[in-house]
Amino acid sequence: MPDDLKDGRIVIVGASLAGLRAAEALREEGFTGSLTVVGDELHAPYDRPPLSKQVLLGQATAQTTELPMRRDPDAEWRLGVRATGLDLLEKRVLLEDGESLPYDRVLIATGTRARPWPNKEEAALEGVFTLRSLEDGAGLADRLAARPERVLVIGGGFTGSEIASACRELGVQVTVTERGPAPLVGALGGTLSKLAAVMQRNHGVDLRTGVTVTALKGNGAFTGAELSDGSRVDADVCVAALGAIRNVEWLAESGLAAGPRGIACDAGCRAFNMYGIVTDDVFVAGDVSRFPHPLFGYQLLSLEHWGNAVEQAEVAAHNMVNPGPLQRPHLAVPVFWSTQFGLNIKSVGVPPYSDHIVIAQGSLEARRLAMVYGYKGRVTAAVTVDMAKALDYYRHLIESAAPFPPPPGAADRAIAADVTIPSDVPDPSVLSHGPTVALTGHLPDRRLTVV
């Protein structure tokens, strides 16, 4: 490896948002060596959030979601070819076409894919979709534009809820099945998920909670589904919104700490090997990573957030071309947003990392509020509904480890909000779709035994 970190060969695996932003940042940091970006899709990096919003509503086409380049990263793009392995000893990325790419440093940004409907024959029925790729978005948008009689959405997480919202905006009948007690419960806890349930039903969604889909029916084409409570839903389109699978299978023989929850790395985005020893030349960024965060008990966080992918990619790029003393940690506080059923939901921090909540501003009745989450007497998150301007104040409380319940400040009431209630966050292992933030250490309320 060259002495000068600004030179040499860098390979980025994943032509994703994180992969593109890392490539740009490497050049901005003064990297002059050869840069190769490998991607298993044929498309240049594109933006995924519009696929469940503007694209389904016909306000944009899937083809217009390509990410703008902030600068030309002067990279060799190897698109439409899948990485099949990583040889840490020989320092090579193995490709499915039999070729291998030598590297001095490698960045893994392979992201996630949609969790498919588990029964392959049922999943292959015409009219059954997942929503993750550009093709998924285009196909589902075409079906919604043809005005189906009814759409069945399996899973009431953020993606499922946004799809249901788009259906209602288009005037299409929609049924949502959710295994938990309410939509968004894994991400936001019990209280706010009740508001989400009310909003869905108020907008005409046929919401079924506490049930699972046991079978998809159809003869070549999807016609309906059977539920665990014995009922049947007739529909002509089905979307399985069951959360994401992290793309780590290609690393099975690599010796890295890669598993179903992602690839473990340190706060500087350097990957751990399977023995917990940090690597010097393998870096991780985006949805596929699990990283420790001091504000959340150094638990490993797995985030499926747009902003996290960008910020982590920039930290990884910086650390790839700078020596140890100049490397910096990825300490950004997670931020997430969603628009559905006329509500703007914004979150800062990690709501599942909580034991109590308090409504600090507004009210559930008014459909406009700021809810603050705390864990062991410290503010760990806040979620606003149609009150996004308040979020900066709560971000400051999280970053400064402010006491919970929070003091009056941004609050629109004179006294401190002191009526706290349990946050009612379910164990993520019982949800079909995971929360948008997965805590992959011990859960806040219990220590997991390591066998």
UniProtKB/TrEMBL annotation:
Cofactor names: FAD
Domain Reductase C-terminal: 336-412
One Pfam family of this chain: Reductase_C
Sorted UniProt keywords: FAD, Flavoprotein, Oxidoreductase
UniProt keyword Endoplasmic reticulum, yes or no: no
Residue ranges occupied by any FAD/NAD(P)-binding domain in the UniProt entry: 9-313
Cited InterPro entries: FAD-oxidoreductase/Apoptosis, FAD/NAD-bd_sf, FAD/NAD-binding_dom, FAD/NAD-linked_Rdtase_dimer_sf, Reductase_C
Protein name: Reductase
Organism listed in the record: Streptomyces canarius
Lineage: Bacteria, Bacillati, Actinomycetota, Actinomycetes, Kitasatosporales
